[in-house]
Amino acid sequence: MSEASQQQEENSSKNRPICHSCGLDMDERILKIRYPKGTLPVRGFVCSKCGYEIISFEDAKAASETAERLGLLEPEGAITRKITRSGDQLAVSIPKDIEREFDLKQGAKVRIYTKHDEIILAPV
Ligand SMILES: [Zn+2]
What we know:
The protein contains 3 helices and 7 strands. By secondary structure, the protein is α+β, with helices and mostly antiparallel strands. 5% of the residues are buried.
């Protein structure tokens, strides 16, 4: 009986990809894609022999769109800075690259606001 059910399982999975190294059918699995700010589950395939994992282009594209919507992607060129204190207020210094890129000058105004779990600084 287990043989029959195993055969049925094999027949129903005709779209399974084949591992390029081993030439074996790959098993469908829920894989986790890691993004800078979290992970997302995504349908993929794993080779039971060598452990090679693949995710279809469509599934990977859908996952990265979800990651972007959820804010899991690190903004390009993001820089980590330490919060300092200026008087009784907290302060963050602006990196030189950004100062040059936006031609920022002392006394210029910026707008500060929050979006989801981020603090955004926009030149006015
Ligand atoms: Zn393999």
